[in-house]
Amino acid sequence: MRKLVYYIAVTLDGRIAGPGDEFDFFPAGDAEQTAAYMGFMNSLYPETVPTAFRAMAGVEGAPNRRFDTVLMGRATHQLDPSVPSPYAHLRQYVVSSTLKPDLDPAVTVVPGDPVGLVRDLKKEETGKDIWLCGGGTLAGALLEEIDEIVLKSYPVVAGAGIPMVDGRFDPTVFSVAERTVFPNGVTATRLVRS
């Protein structure tokens, strides 16, 4: 069965973005450190690079290694409102009760029941997993369906902003499967549901 994998960048205090959806404050390190970090992550998950940046990241035309489907909330989808189809190389689902269903032919807007959607997607036999791109409210609604977390932890405290998981109190244990520490201070950890 396919897995739902929450692949996300986070601050030390558990924020995936600032209070105004900003994420440009995540420290990247110097050019060499950034290139090493991005090269490593993009080699593992090339499909997580937005379509508009794939050529610049050196992954244009690269096959999808882990995911063939991306799931995101409205705010994550609208980080750049001028791009209605940010991941054209993936099947795209946006969970939103306010977006119009005819947003873009390559994007499926789902007005409700993200749990039912994920359970249906997991039953498909595509050979690839489902990427939960964000945001925190959607992750909170889908916590019981998240099978793995790939957490890119940056050495910065935001102080306020969008939490990684915003939902009800529901302690859920994950085990560390692998961890890589980069010279720029970023730690990439893959966790699996215990």
Automatic annotation (TrEMBL):
* Coiled-coil portions: none
Which parts of the sequence belong to the Bacterial bifunctional deaminase-reductase C-terminal domain? 3-168
Which Gene3D superfamilies would you find in this protein's record?
Answer: Dihydrofolate Reductase, subunit A
Annotated TM spans:
none
Pfam families per the UniProt record, alphabetical: RibD_C
Domain of life according to the entry:
Bacteria
Protein name stated in the entry: Dihydrofolate reductase family protein
Q: Which organism is it from?
A: Amycolatopsis albidoflavus
Its ancestry begins with:
Bacteria, Bacillati, Actinomycetota, Actinomycetes, Pseudonocardiales
